[in-house]
Amino acid sequence: MQLLQSPLLSICVPTYNRQFLLQRNVEFHLEAFRTIGIPFEIVIVDDCSTDGTAQYLEEISENPEISAFRRVKNSGFVSNYAFAMRRARGKYATFLGDDDLLIPEKVIEYVRIMEEDPALGVVQAPWMLVDERGGVSRNAGPFYKVPGGAIRHERGNFRSLLDMIFDSHVFPEFMIIRRDVLSRSISKATPFIFWAFFYTGRALEQADMLFLAEPFARVTAASDDPRLQQGNHECMFEWDKYRGGLEYLASKTMRKQDPLSDNRGLLQEKINRFMLVRQGVALRLHIDAHNWAEAYVMYHRMSLYGTPPLPEQMYDNICKLAGIVSAARDAFEFSTAPIILDPIIGGDTLKLLPADVRSRLTQASPDQQSAAEPNAYLRMDPEFPPHLRQKDGVFDIRDYVAQFV
Question: Which among 254, 280, 303 is the end of a domain?
């Protein structure tokens, strides 16, 4: 690999087990930025993939724009993101998922803005959500809106940043960042905090930051890939870290002795309102995914702050389904044979169970003579099953449902 001397732009791509998408990413950006004619590099960091990624990176290593690395152990998205960004050699760097694509002309426009303004260390923008299901790429609109088309935050002005986040529900994930600012802002994330709020706050300590309305990246929001998108995973399972990020930024505001610090109650109220929106998104996504125990917990956490978020009938259904799923998952640890479900449970209920649970259930009677291992039964009717061996296990659904009331 022949290294470029002075890239203007580093495109940083963390990847894991998606060689087919990474190849599309690399081919697109090599062609687009070679055509534009600026010096650039593509920094690719493989998080110990087990597919064909390592071989593919070896095949493209002779391209002078490619700078590829492989982690010594799998460490997850955020760590890989930071590792990739810190490998950047360009004057400016931007992150991109392996299934996403930049909008090259917009990237160049924003880099030129930064070149003309030495006080500006970061340009942020919403990303264009893309639906790629069925092999067709469709724009679904930007993830958030920037009021007035542009908002500038002067170095250290955390109140300005917080007000924008609260008022417009902004998630500062996609940035073009000057490398000297990057070096003092991005490293392996700490626990309990949303990485984008954390890195943005650090960067604002170093330089001015400009939010612009037009996206410079197209980001896959839905695809035929059965794996959960990183953004959806954060929304569903890591949403508590958003509060950590907001509290971090609010603390930075108060350390600057901003007048806002005189009204902590108002600040906490704004954080709670922001979080209720995010919890509502998480609740909807868990219901859509048939994650009933998670939906049950989300319901109760949201209910503390106001009107219960779901009708009572829906809540009752969630309790019932959460109980069935919990009983089933306990049964999975008792026997590797198909779990025998009480016939009283109808097909409409079965359809609402997660796919991995449905795949292990049966309502067929077991062959008692050939069964070499224990059978596990999920029981609703006290008379079920009619025949039970000493080594078999019974998991009473009503007991589990009683845990979710």
Answer: 303
